[in-house]
Amino acid sequence: EVQLVESGGGLVQPGGSLRLSCAASGFTFSSYEMNWVRQAPGKGLEWVSYISSSGSTIYYADSVKGRFTISRDNAKNSLYLQMNSLRAEDTAVYYCARGRVAGDYWGQGTLVTVSS
Amino acid sequence: QSALTQPASVSGSPGQSITISCTGTSSDVGSYNLVSWYQQHPGKAPKLMIYEVSKRPSGVSNRFSGSKSGNTASLTISGLQAEDEADYYCCSYAGSSIFYWVFGGGTKLTVL
Prior knowledge:
Mean pLDDT of chain B: 94
Number of strands of chain B: 9
Oligomer: heterodimer
Order of helices and strands of chain B: EEEEEEEEE
Mean pLDDT of chain A: 97
Largest sheet of chain A: 7 strands, mixed
Order of helices and strands of chain A: EEEEEEEEEEE
Low-confidence stretches of chain B: none
C-alpha cells in the first residue's frame, strides 16, 4: 500500500525556518517524481514545488522561489522541504504528492503556522 | 500562473447528474491534455478522481467522468450520492520549458 506521511509542521515566527519531511513507503520511491502542495486555511490548493526522481530537476512556484528548497533522499525514501524567511501567508497545510502530470497519491498533510 | 476558474458551488439531488467547469487559458488547459480533478472531504487529503482529462484511476467509480473543449475542462458526476458531497479541484499541468501545476479555486458540491 502506497503511503506518504508528512511531518515537521508547527508554529514558527515570521522570518523563521522550518523543515518538512515526507516519508514514503509501499512503492519504489526513487522511480517517482514528487511535489509539495499547500492549502491555506479555508482556501484552495496551491502547488509549491516539484522534484524529479533523481533530484536533478527542480521547480518552484513564484511565491516561494528563493525562500524554499525541495530535496529528496532516495536511500531514505524521503522528501523534504526547507522553508526559510517564512511569512504569515505561508500558513497552510502542506501535502506531499506523487507524480508529474497529476498527484496520484497524497499524504495527510502537516500544518505550518507562521505567527508571532 | 493564474488560477483556473471554477464555480464556487454546485448542487444536485441524489441520482441526478452535475457538471463542474474549469476554465483556463491557451497556456495551460488549452495546451495540454493533462487536466486532473481532485475530491477533498473536510479535513482530508485530496484524492485523484480524473487524470489526463478523462482517465479514471483504479478504484474510482465510473460515475465520474471528465472532458475538455478548448480552454475549458469539465467534471461530470452522474447518479449523485450523498458521499459525493465534497470540494472538487481541477488542475492543469504546464510543462515543456517550465513546470507547474495550476489549480482551480475549488467547487463545493452539495448533495441536497
